[in-house]
Design brief:
The protein has 75 helices and 31 strands. By secondary structure, the chain is an alpha+beta fold. The strands form twelve sheets. Strands 25-24-26-27-28-31 form a six-stranded antiparallel β-sheet. Strands 3-2-4 form a three-stranded antiparallel β-sheet. Strand 24 and strand 25 form a beta hairpin. Helix 6 runs antiparallel to helix 10 and helix 64 runs antiparallel to helix 65. The relative contact order is 0.04.
Length: 1892
């Protein structure tokens, strides 16, 4: 390198002769040392000049680079050495110079030693995993790096881990942001005291070199920047420059990491104004410098910024003392709107939007305000560096460098001021940026570090007008996207609102600025300045008014809207973030009495802004119909500050309220929203599309409700408490459009509502009134009561998890408010109102989470339907809450019937709001209640129980809150003439209840029945006249009442009202259309509210005279009434309660109730039904009946399915299984009968129309995962721990097979073992059968039906038509009788020799099948196709083991191995032994019988050459053994190396079926002798030389006893002596002793070894016998398993006594003399060990005692896994993968979806699932804590086995709470893996397209 560099330095030649190239590095060091010495002299001018010259030379060597970056492509492509070399050379020089001649690394170490920093300050970028501890944090933005977090002590704290969105920095050691108790060990010590002073000469060179270096960097940046040509983004060029600068910036970054000493030098350099001036002024002869200065000026100009020459003094550095900038501008007298800044360059483009009509106050360009937007002057390197950082859109490296410097306090202040100075410029760049998301994140990354610190924020606010800048910049930003408001008066509106469709709002581009603003407002000192500054408040209200009325919805009346705009997301987000959150920030500082002044200020400017708004939209008193906006931030500011004023600051409410006229206006829009909500829920806005429902939901949703619906309702409550109650009530009914419905007549005409909407709108209006009158959120509840009420409401709707509860409870959105989620009050309230239900598991069911459910006493006393209605996003949740309440009452026996929503006593009202209760005592409401009660009693249409419920609720509320002054003996007030105009004598509900109303005059359509009924009365003019004279017929019009009151109020409130009468605006919008003629009719009523209630009681109870006043029996009730605070019951109890309360409140009422009850009440008049009505009724009834029938059918179907499910689906309860007809039935049945689940017919399976079992074939490697240890392996969590697969069952079998194949003949090897330990085919069935032709047509229909999810029909996949279990093949049932079996079962008395002969003959007979395979029947075709399926289930590598590809031996091996795999797996499902006995675990679901038929059929096609048939070797002695060996060039596998179980399957499957029980037993007996000999041989190899000779001796003595052949000692000694003839034992020598266990063998332990060796064979054989012959397995203790199975298999002689200890050898039945055959077998071994003694021994010892397979054992705490794996690098590309995963079967680390590890389009997880699990993979996704299952071509998310302290999963680690292993879940996962039931239990499968 050095040589190349030397060549590149080129440049101006140094004056000294050029040194030789190799010495260059030395020379650099020498030069540096020489310069350092020169500079250390007291007079260092000469040294300084020399250094400057050198730097000039070295750093200007980089010029070609800058030129290249500037666009001369040719230079950039310049030859090898090129600019890069020059660049490195320059860096090398700098490093040498800094080190002053020493080594750079030593220099770094030296500087680090002086690091006094007590701060961590580690800077990270997006996606870094950090921690936040709320217990230790002072600022909500506090964060710690993982290292500091784990070093500190946070036990029991409220912390969480999070993935950084924008990047951040570690705050450890910063006591401004966090409490010191949370610091980690490294940053606890305040170390500044004991760190020595930095020696002057150490950093001296740095002070000289760095300014030059940084200037050089700035010149680069200047030259590299080209203004983008018109609109073409030049990101490519910018990125190129940045890439070339990477090394320089990294060098600076490394310097910052050297610690405090170096940082302070850098700070000096960056902030020194003098050196900046000297270097950059652009003067002097250097053309380069001039050019770069010009480019800098151009860049400034193009940014819309000016470079003020010194004549304009820039206000940044010299703030005007004390006064606010805006107050200076004399705006106090202006109209209250601060003119927005007229921006030069942006306005021109936006002119098209017609904003001309806005009131604008043009600021003279001289004021500072303009300077905020347009002036920048750089006075130091730091300022210009930041300028370029912004220009280049915040490159990550630069940001990190600037942030790394922050631990230096002096730098922090300077940088913050610089940042503020560039704030407007940042906003402009952000608006134009194409990558605004990335840029936003980078901006916030910086600003959150600066503004979270209160001290710093205060300083900048005071010195740099931070608040003015922020507010102005925000205002300026929003100005660019304003449009004219269309609310109210479309033509003449002067109001402008933001356009929610603009990118600025849609993409949340304003987010960084708003978030900074919220951040600084959270500091009290800053917020106080804001609240004191009138000019700022005016500007801010002006800003908020841009959002007032945005996103206006107009109701579509004719056709459905074509395009549903989704702008409402943007609108809600903007109101929440830009208006509500700053509001909450300000509110949090208005908590005490001393802050009253602030509230007065806000309220004053808020009202002014509202008044301006009403004027601008031309609003008088009627809102425009059919339009609604959900955004009224000005109303909400006003409401929230009012609420705070009364609640916390003890302000008089009336002192901050406006006049009545303003209140009337204020109430209109919030009321309009409430009415619109009801309209939306009544489907009146259905033509506006789904988005309008979305808005209605968002408005009440938990994150928005306390900034939206709550303030609106509160404002309405305030208005209601101050306005005339009659006016308010009539306004409500008019807004809800149900005025016309409130008439006594049975028919009416509604001009504004369709009949089908009337009922729900009426319910809406009453519900609204109930909420308005019952809600106390802002009217007197304490914070804790509110939290409790919210929590109860949420829990009543549904059981909730802890996290969803945290999410659903609206918390004060301002993070500093003190109510932090998970705070102590939250937990304590939760524990008092709810019980925790731990997660439970239904086998095969879904995973439950830990849930909280309301305590019984909460249902009993606190369930509040009003709160539930207010908080439900979906209407169904209200019903759900009621259902749960009903269920509770039934269960606890409190109320059997259908309860009504309970009535609940409310928290007392705060005195300021007492006026609210006047609503309950106004005639208008009483008339409405009376009318509704009457209509309900008379069964008028469109009224529901719900309406009655609300009416009674309101009456009861009125009785609870009656004014006290009501005296019992009422004197008539002001004589009788008071009563003329009005229905009721007074306004008190208590007395109005008993007032009888006799006649009512109503307006009805001429068709109404009332008209006909009254006509005779009107003929007698006399009577009618008298009625009218006495004025008793009541007439009532809500609208007229409201008009009258409004006029009164207006006249009262405006002094000059006498001259001015407001125009009636309503006429404009009354609906045109021909209303039918209305005529007047008079109804005779003669009822009072009390009498109506009593009649209702009769009607509800369905009995005459059902009401009997309770006090007549028990006078106590009146004296000591025990009225509970909380009452359960239905309508009847509600009526009784009301009557009792009214009697309690007045003696008159009591007397009248008694009187009414004495008169026998006439029956309620029956409803006259017109023919038309009858028709609709019949229709309704028919519909009802149809519905009931359908319900019944569905229920029946469901119950059938359920009962089916219970038998078919339970995976884990073998006991309940009922075996199906597949297994043997009673003897009299002649043939097996099958039901086809598609066509429903039953019948036998025949050759022409075979029936098949629905089966799922899958490849499995579960068996291969068995190991010989009981404990599962642990998942590695450190580098040291590794898992090696060599001890797994699969590996051992593999090694054995390849060993055999090395030395023996291939075809023989393939018969000596089984395969399928890995990738074996497992067959399972749901037990249902179908005709194979039915199945084909079923598949056809599936293929045409494209709506399939989860499985692919092309691969033959389907779901069982009956139980929907996943399947992919059909296994034909072999036609045959069940009777046959019984014949075959009978034992015959043939000798074993005869049987052996028979067996041999049968094997030789090829087609000894009832069905000859040559004939092509349907059955045989199906059998072939299913065999193909079985082969294709697994990969080729798992079925081709022979050396010659696709040899028939291969197929043969594969087929009997399939049988082996299924038997072995069944054994594992039974727990690895057969002690439990009973029927097969799979019971009716076992398909082994059918499977054997298919396999046998195919195996019979291959006849084994009789020469090699192992059967002969087992049962016959061969005369001349030596000749046998000679003539083979390659040996056959010795019979002792054969796997006995494989031999068994080969023998059984090559026999003709059905098989004789005798033959089976015979085969087993013969094979057992071989097995036993193998056991003896293995035992002899295991023990050492002395033991062997001892045994040999002992056995030899007994050899001639009578039953020598059944004594293991004799046999063992014989085996040893035979094998000693070869070299098997010889090779041992001494080195082998290590391998041999030093165990001393006792007879007991030997017997145990032999039994253990033979047991696996006995188990498999017993299972096989059970399946073939349908015999049950006996159950037994573990210790007697061997003997029980042996006798069950017929190995034990029947007369065998069990007194003395059991000896395994007694099971032996030798077909030929034992010693002869053994010596024959041993001879083969000896022949082999002549050459390969080592291998010979290895092959003899077979490990057959495998333990059950297990998944890896996981650590208790998830964090241990996460911390190790989430930073672990991928073995292929050595990067840290984006989605790391780990296999839970073998512990392999894989990349999910990682492209680096992709092979032939397969991603790594899919590949691994094929290699490790033959297509089944179980992976833990490290970054998500979730487990994903891959099965073949599909995958599913299984769930998580790690839960937090509340029993919840944390998918994607979003909450970041500590997670702990849930052992039960892990067990379930393991169970599903072992039992292969993933496909059946998990429902949500999808294709993965090999991309995982």
């Amino acid at each position: 390198m050095a040589a190349a560099a030397a060549a590149a330095v080129g440049g101006p030649q140094p004056s000294q002769p050029e040194p030789p190239a190799p010495g260059l590095a030395l020379d650099k060091a020498a030069t540096a040392a020489h310069l350092k010495a020169a500079l250390s002299r007291p007079d260092n001018r000469a040294g300084a000049e020399e250094l400057q010259a050198l730097l000039e030379r070295v750093l200007s060597a980089e010029r070609p680079l800058a030129a290249a970056a500037g666009g001369e492509e040719a230079a950039a492509a310049g030859g090898g050495g090129g600019p890069g070399a020059a660049e490195e050379e320059a860096l090398e020089w700098c490093k040498c110079l800094l080190a002053g001649g020493g080594g750079y690394d030593e220099f770094c170490a030296a500087v680090r030693a002086y690091d006094p920093a007590a701060l961590c300050g580690l800077v990270w970028t997006a996606n870094f995993v950090a921690y936040r501890c709320r217990t230790c944090g002072i600022s909500p933005c506090m964060s710690l790096c993982a290292e500091c977090f784990h070093q500190g002590d946070h036990t029991g704290h409220d912390f969480n881990m999070f993935r950084s969105q924008a990047g951040g920095a570690c705050d450890c050691g910063d006591s401004n942001v966090m409490r010191e108790s949370g610091f980690c060990k490294r940053h606890q010590i305040k170390s500044s005291s004991n760190i020595p002073c930095v020696p002057k000469d150490l950093l001296m060179m740095s002070e000289f070199v760095l300014p030059r270096f940084i200037f050089c960097l700035i010149q680069y940046l200047r030259e590299g920047y080209n203004e983008p040509a018109a609109d073409v983004p030049s990101e490519k060029d910018l990125n190129k420059v940045l890439q070339l600068l990477e090394p320089q910036i990294s060098f600076l970054e490394d310097l910052t990491k050297m610690g405090g000493a170096m940082r302070s030098v850098l700070t000096q350099v960056l902030t020194n104004q003098q050196s900046y001036k000297d270097l950059t002024s652009g003067l002097g002869e250097n053309t380069c410098a001039k050019k770069s200065h010009e480019k800098y000026l151009i860049a400034l100009k193009s940014s819309g910024l000016t470079y003020p020459e010194d004549k304009l003094i820039y206000g940044m550095q010299e703030p005007s003392a004390g006064t606010s900038t805006l107050a200076v501008q004399g705006f106090a007298g202006a109209t209250g709107t601060l003119g927005q800044v007229d921006s030069s360059d942006e306005e021109d483009q936006d002119g098209s939007q017609g904003l001309g009509k806005r009131k604008r106050v043009k600021l003279s360009s001289g004021t500072k305000d303009q300077s905020i937007m347009d002036v920048l002057k750089h006075k130091s390197f730091l300022e210009e560096l930041l300028f370029w950082t912004i220009k280049y859109e915040f490159p990550q490296k630069m940001v990190t460098f600037l942030l790394n410097m922050l631990p230096d306090q002096e730098y922090k202040v300077a940088f913050t001021k610089t940042f503020v100075q560039h704030y407007a410029f940042i906003m402009k760049t952000l608006k134009k940026s194409h990558e605004s998301d990335t840029m936003s994140n980078r901006i916030v990354h910086i600003s959150v570090q600066l503004f979270s610190n209160e001290e710093l924020a205060r300083q900048v606010t005071e010195e740099c007008q931070l608040l003015d800048i922020m507010v102005t910049v925000l205002l300026y930003m929003m100005e660019s996207c304003l449009i004219k408001s269309e609310l109210q008066d479309e033509e003449n509106s002067l109001h402008v609102v933001v356009n929610c469709g603009e990118a600025l709002l849609k993409n949340n581009t304003y987010w960084p600025l708003v978030s900074d603003f919220i951040n600084i407002l959270s500091h009290q000192s800053v917020a106080k300045r804001f609240l004191e500054d009138h000019g700022l408040l005016v500007t801010w209200m002006n800003f908020v008014s841009f959002f007032q009325g945005m996103n206006l919805n107009k109701r579509e009346l004719n056709e459905h809207v074509e395009f549903e705009s989704q702008t409402y997301y943007a609108a809600f987000a903007a109101e929440l973030e830009a208006c509500a959150q700053p509001m909450w920030g300000l509110l949090s500082h208005c908590k005490v009495r001393e802050t009253q002044e602030y509230t007065r200020n806000v309220v004053r400017y808020c009202l002014e802004a509202l008044q301006d708004w009403f004027d601008a939209i031309n609003f008088v008193d009627e809102p425009a119909p059919n339009q609604v906006t959900f955004h009224l931030p000005l109303h909400r500011y006003y409401a929230m500050f009012l609420s705070k004023a009364v609640k916390c600051q003890e302000l008089e409410l009336d002192s901050v309220l406006p006049d009545q006229e303003m209140l009337m206006k204020l109430m209109i829009h919030p009321l309009q929203i409430q009415a619109s909500l009801a309209e939306i829920h009544s489907n009146m806005w259905v033509r506006n599309g789904l988005q309008i429902k979305g808005q209605a939901m968002t408005y009440v949703q938990s994150h928005f409700c306390n900034s939206m619906i709550d303030p609106d309702i509160y404002l309405l409550q305030v208005c209601a408490s101050r306005l005339d109650p009659d006016y308010f009530i009539s306004s409500v009914f008019e807004r809800f459009k149900v005025v016309d419905l409130l008439t006594m007549a049975s028919q009416h005409q509604n001009t504004v509502l369709d009949a089908e909407h009337e009922r729900s709108m009426l319910e809406g209006a009453l519900t609204f009134l109930v909420i308005l009158l019952s809600l106390r959120l802002h009217l007197g509840m304490s914070d804790d009561e509110i939290l409790r009420a919210e929590m109860v409401a949420q829990l009543c709707m549904n059981d909730r998890t802890h996290s969803s509860l945290l999410d659903l409870i609206p918390e004060n959105p301002n993070p500093k408010s003190g109510i932090i989620p998970g705070s102590y009050s939250f937990e304590s309230v939760l524990s008092t109102v709810a019980d925790f239900k731990a997660p439970v598991f239904e086998p095969g069911g879904s995973m439950q989470q830990g849930m909280y459910t309301p305590k019984a006493e909460v249902w009993d006393q606190e369930f509040d339907p009003v709160m539930v209605i207010l908080r439900t996003v979906y209407r169904r949740d209200v019903q759900s809450a009621m259902d749960r309440y009903t269920a509770f009452l039934k269960q606890s026996g409190k109320f059997p019937g259908n309860p009504w929503p309970p009535y609940k006593k409310r928290t007392p009202l705060h005195p300021s709001y007492k006026g609210l209760m006047r609503l309950l005592h106004c005639k208008t409401l009483h008339i409405v209640l009376f009318t509704l009660l009457y209509k309900i009693l008379m069964d008028h249409q469109n009224l529901s129980e719900h309406v009655l419920c609300m009416v009674l609720y309101l009456i009861e509320l009125g009785l609870e809150n009656s004014p006290e002054e009501e005296s019992d003996e009422e004197a008539p007030v002001g004589g009788p003439e008071r009563c003329h105009d009005s229905w009721f004598p007074g306004i008190n509900l208590v007395s109005n209840m008993r007032h009888f109303i006799n006649y009512v005059r109503v307006r009805v359509p001429e068709t109404a029945p009332e008209v006909r009924r009254d006509s005779p009365a009107s003929t007698s003019s006399d009577s009618l006249g008298s009625l009218q004279n006495s004025g008793t017929a009541q007439v009532f019009s809500l609208v007229a009442e409201r008009r009258k009151k409004f006029q009164e109020i207006i006249n009262r409130s405006s002094n000059e009202a006498n001259q001015v009468v407001r125009p009636k605006t309503s006429s404009k919008w009354s609906t045109p259309g021909s209303a039918p003629q209305l005529t007047t009719a008079i109804l005779e009523i003669k009822e009072s509210i009390l009498s109506l209630l009593i009649k209702l009681h009769h009607k509800l109870s369905g009995k005459q005279n059902s009401y009997y006043p309770p006090w007549l029996d028990d006078i106590e009730i009146l004296i000591q009434p025990e009225i509970p605070k909380y009452s359960h019951g239905d309508g009847i109890t509600a009526v009784e309660r009301i009557l009792l309360k009214s009697a309690l409140q007045s003696r008159m009422n009591k007397r009248i109730i008694e009187e009414i009850c004495r008169k026998v009440t006439p029956p309620v008049p029956p409803k006259k039904i017109t023919a038309a009505e009858k028709k609709t009724l019949d229709k309704e009834e028919r519909r009802q009946k149809a519905r009931e029938r359908q319900q019944k059918l569905l229920a029946e179907f469901a119950s059938r399915q359920k009962s089916f499910m219970e038998t078919a689906m339970d995976v884990d309860s073998p006991e309940t299984d009922i075996p199906m007809e597949i297994t043997t039935a009673e003897p009299q049945v002649s043939e097996a009968v099958y039901d086809c689940v598609i066509c429903g017919q039953s019948g036998p399976s025949s050759e022409d129309r075979p029936t098949g079992l629905v089966v799922l074939l899958q490849a499995s490697s579960v068996l291969g995962q068995c190991r010989d240890s009981v404990d599962p392996k642990k998942l590695p969590i450190t580098e040291e721990e590794q898992i090696y697969p060599w001890d797994t069952c699969a590996a051992v079998h593999d090694v054995r097979l390849s060993l055999l194949q090395r030395y023996f003949k291939d075809s023989s090897c393939l018969l000596a073992v089984s395969i399928g330990w890995e990738g074996g085919v497992y067959v399972q069935t749901c037990g249902h059968t179908l005709h194979i032709d039915c199945h084909k047509s079923y598949m056809e229909s599936l293929r045409n039906d494209q709506v399939l999810q989860g499985f692919s029909v092309d691969k033959g996949e389907f779901t069982c038509p009956l139980c929907r279990q996943f399947a992919n093949s059909v296994l034909p049932c072999y036609p045959g009788t069940s009777m046959e079996n019984n014949l075959w079962h009978r034992p015959s008395n043939k000798s074993i020799q005869d049987l052996i002969k028979e067996v041999e003959e049968l094997q030789g007979r090829p087609g000894a099948f009832t069905v000859s395979i040559s004939s092509e029947t349907n059955l045989s075709k199906e059998m072939e196709s299913v065999m193909k399926d079985i082969k294709n289930t697994t990969q080729k590598k798992y079925r081709d083991y022979s050396k010659t590809p696709s040899s028939p031996d291969n197929d043969f091996l594969f087929m009997y191995s399939v049988a082996r795999t299924n038997l072995e797996l069944e054994l594992i499902h039974r727990g690895g032994n057969l002690c439990s006995g009973g029927a097969s675990t799979a019971g009716k679901r076992s398909c082994l019988n059918q499977l054997f038929h298919v396999l046998a059929l195919h195996m019979r096609l291959y006849s084994i050459d009789s020469e090699y048939n192992p059967w002969r070797k087992l049962t016959q002695l061969i005369e001349d053994m030596n000749s046998q060996l000679r003539n083979e060039e390659q040996l056959e596998v010795p019979i002792l190396y054969h796997d006995v179980t494989s031999l068994l399957l080969i023998q059984i499957l090559t026999m003709p079926h059905p098989l004789h029980k005798d033959h089976f037993t015979c085969i087993v007996k013969v094979l057992f002798t071989l097995l036993y000999t193998q056991a003896l041989a293995a035992l002899s190899v295991k023990c050492n030389e002395e033991d062997r000779s001892a045994w040999k001796h002992v056995g030899a003595l007994k050899k001639n006893t009578c039953d020598a052949q059944k004594s293991y000692e004799v046999l063992l000694s014989f085996v040893i002596s035979e094998l000693s003839k070869g070299k098997l034992y010889h090779e041992e020598g001494n080195q082998e002793c290590g391998m041999v266990s030093p165990v001393t063998w006792s007879p007991e332990s030997m017997e145990q070894y032999l039994q253990d060796f033979c047991l696996p064979f006995l188990r498999i054989t017993s299972l096989l016998q059970h399946h073939l012959f349908g015999e049950d397995l006996p159950s037994c203790q573990e210790e007697e398993e061997f003997s029980v199975l042996a006798s069950c298999l017929g190995l034990l002689p029947t007369f065998y006594q069990t007194e003395h200890p059991f000896i395994s050898a007694s099971c032996l039945n030798w077909p030929v003399p034992a010693f002869d055959i053994i010596s024959q077998w041993c001879f083969e071994i000896n022949a082999f060990t002549e050459r390969h003694a080592e291998q010979g021994k290895a092959l003899l010892i077979q490990e057959s005692r495998w333990k059950l397979p297990h998944l890896l054992q996981l650590p208790e705490n998830y964090n241990t896994i996460f911390q190790y794996y989430h930073r672990k690098t991928c073995s292929v590309c050595t990067k840290v993968p984006k989605d790391p995963a780990v296999c839970l079967v073998c512990g392999t680390f894989v990349c999910l979806k990682g492209l680096c590890c992709k092979q032939q389009s397969y991603c790594e997880c899919v590949l691994h699932s094929q290699n490790c699990g033959a297509g089944t993979g179980i992976f833990l996704l490290i970054n998500a804590s979730v487990i994903i299952i891959i099965r073949g071509h599909r995958f599913c998310l299984w769930g998580s086995v790690y839960l937090d302290a509340h029993g919840e999963e944390d998918r994607d680690l979003r909450r970041g709470k500590p997670l702990y292993i849930c052992k039960e879940r892990y067990k379930v996962l393991e169970q599903q893996w072992i039992s292969h039931t993933f496909d059946h239990i998990n429902k949500r499968w999808g294709p993965h397209y090999n991309g995982l």
